[in-house]
Amino acid sequence: MKLTNSIFLVLFVLVLPVGHLLGWISVNTISVWGRYFCFAIAALGIDLIWGYTGIMSMCQAFFFCLGGYAIGMHLLLTATALQGHALPDFMTWNSFTALPAFWVPFRGAVPAILLALIVPGLVALLIGFFIFRSRIKGVYMAIITQALALAMYLLFLRNETRLGGTNGLTDFRTWFGFDLSSSSTKLALYFVSLGMLIVLYLLCRKLVQSKFGKILQAIRDSEFRVGYTAYRVLNYKLTVFVIAAVVCALAGMLYVPQTGIITPGRMDVTASVEMLMWVALGGRGRLRGAIIGALLVNCLYSLCTSWLPQGWLFVLGGLYVLTVLYFDRGFLGLFEQARKRLAGARKTAATPPVVLKN
Amino acid sequence: MLLEVKQLTVSFGGVKALDLEHFRLAGKELRVVIGPNGAGKSTFMDILCGRTKPATGEILFKGHNLRGRSEVEIAELGIGRKFQKPSVFPSLTVAENMLLAARMKKDVWSSLFFRPSAAFTEKIGAMAERVGLSTVLHKPAGSLSHGQKQWLEIAIVILQDPTLLLIDEPAAGLSDRETEKTGELLLELSREHAIIVIEHDMHFVRQIARGLVSVLVNGKLLMEDRFEVVRNDQRVIDCYLGRANAQLEKL
User: What is the full DSSP assignment across B134-186?
Assistant: First the structure.
């Protein structure tokens, strides 16, 4: 396991940034990987709720977008102020006369960051309370959260929501005063995302190794037994649902300055399904699996879209079928199996053949 | 009186699964409940631990009425349940299974910051020793044999330190040797806890029934007496023989 850690760190802390500074790797590639780290953070959140607790939440992309929109509102307001306009462009086009009241707190960077985490947390608390209190589980949980994701997507599409409608929020200029188009800012965002990913990985690892984490796994294994062991399952499910939502929101918050745009397209039904796929393909119930899955699938996505633009969904679907059929523990399970087999082969080669004595 | 049940009924789809006029448990007593399949034994336990809601009746445990309470509240009051099908947490290790069960504060906050003390680890070790699981302490519970799972679940229930243990068919699927050990364990536990055991295996019942045996038939309490009396009772023999169970005859 030390090996994967070292490969990860050497590749992303050393090779990519140094390669960029030497001019071998374009700033675009750096920025793309910065975004993948955000996806990997979101995957950690999904692994907590789905992989460890067994709750299939299909609205994690919505929480991702809540974080994204919150920071997007802040970035747009600062850009508008820089241009000397009173209102963001889309509001002017939609003939708004004043800034909607709920936009006002997002003028400040600190309130915007706090709201980007608090709002998704509260939304998750509210939704989760009603879902878990009604003891909705399994496929019903998946359907309800998916319906919720769809409803929210439709809501955000509308101009009346005053969040930019179909076009979403874009035209950002600066991030904490740094020019978003400069390559040094992009490199900084890359490192912030990478740092956050590492910090969150360590935090999540601490969480799943704690007694709390063991209870989550117990809920996944045998929920009714947890109840008869005197744990209030509702509180545990709510807590992990809120944590997962906040983790996804944090990912969205880091993602938006790097892409420069957030639209409702990021939270449609397929977006949440794709996020689940990262975790399923990487190795569900393992934090490393979630990270590997998010990074590899997205890497593959960008390769595929340039090689065979029509074929991506077939590749993804095919991979998923293969995973379910042959390596249900995901890429991570596959690596481990391969390594074990290699080690086994080395061992058998090293041990001398047994001589049968008569 | 630790447990007092009055006029308890429950129906499933119009069929009265249980119609218990009276059931009492004094204190540190090991009560065996026997009866043919479908007599309502497991249903009775389901009601006691909050899994099934009764239609009518009253259940007083330590003076508290259990009706309308959730399974968590009932567990907190001191009733622990071992299910018929061993239900442990397969992906957690044996030690982790025991850790979750042990009596302590069980809210989210305490679980987040729980650190096992040396005394606690020792307690888990001692319990593993007692149920013969110390060699597999760090193996996932899913990899245990059927008998080991049965014992692990018994350990889970004991570690909750309940006043009343509900044990549903502890000897099912165990070898003779294991069954005997389970019996010894239950007898030992009955010195400090009240226990209700459901069992079909009459050899096992004979081993553990030191006090009263309750016979349930068609949801009703047929009789309650010492095992010697029960096994010679014509009505009991009839209802077992009627179901082609020759076990009582052989004894």
Answer: GGGTTSBGGGS-HHHHHHHHHHHHHHT--SEEEEE-TTTT--HHHHHHHHHHH
Considering the entire predicted model, what is its pTM?
0.91
Main-chain dihedrals φ then ψ at residue B16, nearest 5 degrees: -75, 105
Give, for A119, the enclosing helix (H) or strand (E): helix A109-133
Distances (CA, A) of A20 to A30, A40, A192, A193, A300: 8, 22, 16, 17, 21
Strands B194-198 and B30-34 turn out to be: parallel
Closest CA to A167 of A261, A251, A285: A261
Quick one: residue B18, left, alpha or beta (phi over 0 = left, psi -120 to 50 = alpha)? beta
Q: Can you state the percent helix, strand and coil of chain B, rounding each to 5?
A: 40, 25, 35
Q: Write out pLDDT tens, residues A174-207.
A: 998 899 999 999 999 999 999 999 999 999 999 9
Contact A28, A81 (CB under 8 A): no
Residue B92 contacts A, CB cutoff 8 Å: yes
Model pLDDT for residues B102-159, shown as the tens digit of each residue:
999 999 999 999 999 999 999 999 999 999 999 999 999 999 999 899 999 999 999 9
Locate the domains of chain A by residue range: 17-269
**CB nearest to A229's CB, from B90, B100, B112:** B100
Chain center to CA of A66:
12
B91 touches chain A (CB under 8 A): yes
Question: Taking Cα atoms as reference points, which of A320, A51, A48, A139 lies closest to residue B91?
Answer: A51
Q: What superfamily does domain B26-52+71-250 belong to in CATH? A: P-loop containing nucleotide triphosphate hydrolases (3.40.50.300)
Segment 125-164 of chain B within 8 Å of chain A by CB = 156, 160
**DSSP per-residue codes, A255-296:** HHHHHSEE-GGGGSHHHHHHHHHHHHHH-TT-HHHHHHHHHH
* Closest residue, chain A, to B108 (C-alpha): A236
Chain A residues with CB-CB distance to B114 below 8 A: 210-212
Q: Which residues pair with B216 in a beta bridge?
A: B221
d(CA A14, CA A36): 17
Q: Which of A207, A211, A243 to mutate to test the interface with B (most CBs of B within 10 A)?
A: A211
Digit-by-digit pLDDT tens for chain A (358 residues) are 678 888 899 999 989 999 999 999 999 999 999 999 999 999 999 999 999 999 999 999 999 999 999 999 999 999 999 999 989 999 999 888 999 999 999 999 999 999 999 999 999 999 999 999 999 999 999 999 999 999 999 999 999 999 999 999 999 999 988 999 999 999 999 999 999 999 999 999 999 999 999 999 999 999 999 999 999 999 999 999 999 999 999 999 999 999 999 999 999 999 999 999 999 999 999 999 999 999 999 999 988 988 888 888 888 889 889 988 888 888 888 888 888 888 887 766 655 444 444 4
Q: Which of A55, A35, A56, A31 lies closest to A272 in space, CA to CA? A: A56
Interface test with B, best of A225, A228, A231, A243 (most B CBs within 10 A): A228
Tell me the C-alpha distance between B115 and B106, whole Å: 13
State how far the Cα of B27 lies from the Cα of B48, in Å rounded to an integer: 16
